[in-house]
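As a warm-up, study this chain.
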Amino acid sequence: MTMIDPYIFRCPICGEEFEDYVLASSNQSGASDLDTRPPEMIRSTMNIWIHECSQCGYAARDFDEKPQVNRDFIESDIYQNIGFEFKSDLAKSFYREYLILKEEGCTDVLFHPLLNCAWACDDFDDTDNAVEIRKMCAEIIGEDTETLSLIRLDLLRRSRQFDRVIEEYSSKTFSEEILNKICTFSIIKAKSADDACYTVEDAMQY
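Now compare it with the structure written out below.
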């Protein structure tokens, strides 16, 4: 069961106070997507993973942390106009989080808000933007771990870069059978130009 609580946030950039909701508890049942998006019920709580100031537009997951960006950046054209016409405010908030982290030089976690942004695009049938965001995410995610490598694989496939999937992953092997099955499944789907969303269970049953 998902439980959310109201909370009064104070923006660390402009000082505005506004009410939003925080996640008190939730659960999940079933298989995650191949890009690690969790199943329900936590799947549908994305709208409270991030918060955006109603006055200046500062976006963050934790408003208690002091930001490393200043008000000039938040008010800049690159931040306010972002360069994408998203169908949902949620996708816009996640992309703004990405812009802030990029400005702060947090390169190791930059892919997180982009991945969440792509999920928000999926939920609003914002297909073209979902593809473009996944392309961006695939270029910065890195392959430091096997999990990240497989997320990148799914990002490439779902952004319709099928030739890259086949070329870059056909000779890869992973340490566990389940990971190799996911890789093989994804390559098969890429060979048929399939960019649909699949779960880990789908890969295991193939």
